[in-house]
Design brief:
The structure holds 2 protein chains of 2 kinds. Chain A is mostly helical. Chain A is built from 12 helices and no strands. Among the domains of chain B are: 215 residues, MetI-like (MetI-like fold, Orthogonal Bundle), CATH 1.10.3720.10; 219 residues, 3-Layer(aba) Sandwich (Rossmann fold). Classes of the chains: A mainly alpha, B alpha/beta. At the A-B interface, helix 1, helix 6, helix 7, helix 8 and helix 9 of A face helix 1, helix 6, helix 7, helix 10 and helix 11 of B.
């Protein structure tokens, strides 16, 4: 198991390096000149040259890349133009919001998706299965942000059960924090829950038709054990990778949900960085997202390794 | 790029049973198959029609829209639905219905543009790296991996940050996301197809590489690509709508569904209805594309998700029990039906009868598709859904297993009757230790504790000849060789010392040397436990060596039963004779392997009269129709009048 984690970590760092390279290349390809961005159009050629030297942009590209990468490794992702603060500080201050929103939505989608999908799979072709399959189709097509708007309109504006917009930090009380996140988390979770349910159903049906199920049944294993120990565990090896993908998708979609509910998270930062051409901020937030996705993948790989002996390196 | 990756890898609906049923009993030519299946799936057809209507709305938007979608009229801003403005007005007093109608142009246009560009770019790159392989493939796939570690939407952000905001950049960004998906699936299919014989044949025939790639491999991509594209069209719409909602996509003034929702966000506290029209429009169109994709997938893969009613066995009174100590199991009149296409059913087992005596090995032989395995499954009440036993009885231990409840059957399976299977490694769950699985019957039937069951499992593994039995309990199926796995399977089946062991092609998947060892083991166990063995096989040599009596099956019927010696030396059914003469050791002087012309017809194509008559060299016109009952253990109207050759 430690071996598995070690190898996966190693490959994660490899991918992270590639992502960093792509991000660096992206900035080189960008038509935006950091010097103009820093000085505006006002700078004299001398000032511009001085700024260029200050930012290290007069050095050779590989040198720039190595120094940027080295700084990034120590947590120095440069300075945000719009906020004037170091990118890392901005990111860290927004992290709790995104963490609560995305973490809550992922938990919710896994619970709903697994329960619905596994139940439907075991009861394939029943009335309940058809109902779940229908709801899943709708869930796959619903844009989460529209759902968020409807939720806000119904439960916040009309019924006043929840706040319509804004974020209440956890430090101001658990109740307020939960109430603030309830609607955005639900709106964000629906799509992922539908995807997980759909795949869980398919995985259960696929595993139910496997030869070993017939062999276990023919040799007297009780149906309850076959279902909840054998089929479920085999199905989980198919469902876990999907959950990993949905964790990443949920993080990405949180950007839109943050806008609907005016939550000050990483997503808002990301959109700001694009609108205001704040390249260091963009690099930093994308890098953070990539880190999160790789971490999610690592978690899934470890879980898969625990379940499936075949993926453990010997 | 992972927004809809899960849809891409969706497992196809599982096959209904171990046998594949046709949608069309008459076997229509494949060309008509697609259309026929489309008609058989009304939902897919409806989706296609609605999407067609959607396209028409987009094309004829200027004629359909009651107002100019961009003309503002602030005095009537934020109105609800009215006779003049069916869907109300937006924050600048623009007609929402007109904006929704015009919005279909952008929605359809951007998604089609981005997906078709992605198809062209992605398949081209995928074909190239898949076919060239080597360095190209490795480098490209590393880049693809890195790109896929960034979620689709964030990836789009990064691209938009470089190439700027607006309709065209958003479309390009989405297109790039999807091209990476097309690279993946195309490469996957090419890698698979490259190994196929027809590609080798084309290469040997001297066809040029481009010709092989475009003429031979590309056509195999069409089906999967159409399915993916339909679902990607829906996903593309969702992503573009999100980008517009965030103000990174389509210009705010242009009538666009995502942009309209962005407007709705600000004003919906004043006019709650404002978000409904565009939200419904997005949901509906994505839903249609998704459902179309699912339907097309079923059509392309041929796994119709349309369900057939499960065959339910009729309720029947238990037959009078004749207790005869010499008989272990007696099946008579066993019929198994599967539902066919249009409310018809196929009888895949027809009136099968077998009598197994105490301590004997009974061989059940026949070609693939003759119904041997189904007979065994039917005896244990394990006919795969949606099939079912519709007639007959299986007397075992003084009662009819077919009339037994599921709970009673569960007490018999693995206890009084054990069963082993053809592919021993697949017969164990890959993610559970072997020892635990062998112990299941012991825990279920003997009520042993986990520890005691493990101890007993170790003894059993040792008994069936698995070295280091105790240590191997914790191993998983993939750590076993085929022969060892079959020994483990045997250990599981005999754990409770059953009176009958059903062995379904127990050695077919094994090496020849291992086959003999497994047969010897079964022979030893038989005398040790005094159990009867039902040996299902197509290997006559094995029957000759191990069996006392045998039954020959053809097309769902038993055609001859008798002592092994008698059937071998003087077969009475032409099919038995044909099987004997088709044994390699009976090869005639000219050295060619004898075969039986043709093959077992599929259940929906069984001929009238004798089912073997089209392949029978003794057939006369009377064989083509009329009843053909089993008389004196032979199902042949010409029994007795033929001089059939056996094996001396």
């Amino acid at each position: 198991m430690q071996k598995l984690i070690f190898y996966r970590l190693l490959s994660s760092f490899g991918v992270l390096f590639l992502v960093a390279t792509l991000l660096f290349a992206l900035v080189q390809l960008s038509p935006i000149d950091p010097v103009t961005l820093a000085l505006g159009d006002a700078g004299t050629p001398e000032q511009q040259a001085a700024k260029r030297h200050e930012l290290g942009l007069d050095r050779a590209l590989p040198v720039q890349f190595v120094s940027w990468l080295g700084a990034a490794l120590t947590g120095d992702l440069g300075k945000s133009h719009i906020h004037g603060a170091p990118v890392i500080e901005e990111l860290l201050s927004r992290l709790p919001v995104t963490f609560g929103l995305v973490g809550g939505a992922i938990l919710l989608s896994i619970v709903i998706g697994l329960l619905a999908g596994v139940y439907a799979g075991f009861r394939a072709d029943s009335v309940v299965d058809r109902a779940i399959t229908f709801l899943v189709s709708i869930g796959l097509a619903l844009p989460g942000f529209w759902l968020g708007l409807l939720f806000a309109s119904a439960f916040a504006v009309s019924l006043r059960w929840f706040p319509a917009i804004g974020y209440t930090p956890l430090s101001e009380g658990l109740g307020g924090w939960l109430r603030g996140l309830a609607l955005p988390c639900t709106a964000l979770a629906i799509h992922a829950a539908a995807v997980i349910a759909r795949h869980a159903r398919g995985a259960i049906i696929e595993s139910s038709n496997a030869s070993y199920v017939q062999a276990l049944r023919a040799n007297g294993t009780p149906e309850r054990l076959i279902r909840f120990q054998y089929i479920l565990k085999n199905a989980m090896t198919l469902i876990l990778p999907i959950i990993g993908i949905e964790m990443a998708v949920t993080l990405a979609t949180s950007v839109v949900i943050e806008k609907v509910f005016a939550l000050p998270g990483i997503g808002t930062l990301l959109v700001e960085s694009i609108v205001h051409n704040d390249l260091p901020l963009l690099q930093g937030s994308v890098l953070l997202v990539a880190c999160f996705v790789l971490l999610a993948n690592l978690l899934i790989d470890v879980a898969l390794g625990l379940i499936n002996p075949r993926v453990r390196p010997s | 790029m992972s927004l809809d990756a899960p849809l891409m890898t969706a497992p196809a609906p599982a096959p209904a049973a171990t046998i594949v049923m046709p949608d069309d009993a008459a076997g229509a030519p494949a060309r008509h198959g697609i259309w026929r299946r489309l008609v058989a799936q009304p939902m897919t057809l409806i989706c296609l029609i609605l999407l067609g209507a959607f396209a028409l709305v987009a094309i004829f938007a200027p004629w359909l829209a009651p107002y100019d979608p961009t003309s503002t009229n602030t005095p009537i801003r934020l109105r609800g639905p009215s006779a003049a403005h069916w869907l109300g007005t937006d924050s600048l007093g623009r007609d929402v219905l007109s904006r929704v109608i015009y919005g279909s142009r952008l929605a359809l246009g951007t998604s089609i543009a981005s997906v078709s560009l992605a198809v062209v770019v992605g398949t081209a790159i995928g074909l190239f790296i898949g076919y060239r392989g080597g360095m190209w493939d490795r480098v490209a796939m590393r880049i693809v991996d890195a790109m896929q570690s960034i979620p689709a939407l964030v990836f789009a952000f990064a691209i938009i940050a470089v190439i700027g905001r607006g309709l065209v950049p958003a479309t390009l960004a989405v297109s790039l996301i999807f091209s990476i998906m097309y690279i993946r699936i195309t490469r996957g299919i090419v890698l698979r197809e490259r190994e196929q014989l027809y590609v080798d044949a084309a290469r040997v025939a001297g066809l040029s590489t481009p010709r092989i790639v475009f003429r031979e491999i590309l056509p195999n991509l069409a089906g999967p690509l159409i399915v993916e594209s339909s679902i990607h069209l829906g996903s593309a719409q969702l992503i573009i709508a999100m980008l517009s909602f965030l103000g990174l996509g389509v210009d705010a003034d242009a009538p666009d569904w995502g942009g309209m929702l962005s407007d709705a966000r600000i004003y919906q506290a004043i006019q709650p209805f404002i978000s409904v029209p565009s939200g419904v429009a997005i949901t509906l169109s994505v839903l249609l594309f998704n459902m179309l994709g699912d339907g097309l997938r079923d059509i392309v893969t041929g796994t119709g998700s349309h369900t057939r009613a499960r065959i339910r066995p009729p309720h029947r009174p238990a037959p009078a029990t004749v207790v005869n100590d010499a008989i272990v199991l007696q099946a008579s009149g066993l019929c198994v039906d599967f539902p066919g296409g249009d409310k018809s059913t196929f009888r895949i087992l027809d009136n099968v009868g077998l009598t197994l005596r105490r301590g004997e090995t009974f061989g059940l032989v026949g070609e693939s598709g003759s119904g041997k395995s189904m007979t065994a499954l039917a005896m244990l009440g394990l006919v795969p859904s949606p099939g079912g036993v519709t007639a007959g009885s299986v007397m075992f231990g003084g009662r009819d297993l077919l009339a037994a409840s599921e709970a009673e059957l569960a007490r018999i399976r693995g206890n009084a009757i054990g069963m082993i299977f053809q592919d021993p490694i697949a017969a164990f769950s890959p993610v559970h230790a072997i020892g635990r699985q062998i112990a299941e019957p012991l825990r279920a039937h003997r009520g042993l504790s986990a520890r005691a069951a493990q101890d007993r499992a170790a003894e059993l593994l040792d008994r069936v000849g698995v070295p280091n039995a105790r240590r191997r309990l914790d191993d998983y199926p993939h750590q076993f060789s085929g022969g060892m796995a079959q020994r483990a399977m045997i250990a599981m089946a005999i754990a409770c010392e059953p009176r009958l062991l059903i062995a379904d092609e127990p050695t077919t998947a094994l090496d020849v040397t291992i086959q003999a060892q497994v047969l010897d083991l079964l022979e030893d166990l038989k005398s040790e436990f005094g159990m009867a063995i039902l040996l299902i096989t197509h290997d006559l040599g094995m029957v000759a060596e191990t069996c006392d009596r045998m039954a020959v099956m053809y097309a769902g019927q038993v055609v001859e039963t008798g002592d092994v010696a008698t059937v071998f030396t003087s077969p009475r059914h032409p099919y038995s004779e044909a099987l004997m003469s088709a044994r390699p050791r009976n090869r005639p002087a000219d050295g060619r392997l004898p075969t039986i012309e043709g093959r077992v017809p599929l259940p929906w194509a069984w001929p009238d009269g004798c089912r073997f008559h089209p392949r029978c060299r003794h057939a006369v016109s009377a064989c083509q129709s009329g009843p053909n009952p089993l008389v004196a253990d032979v199902r042949c109207i010409r029994r007795g009048e033929l001089a059939l050759r056996g094996i001396a």
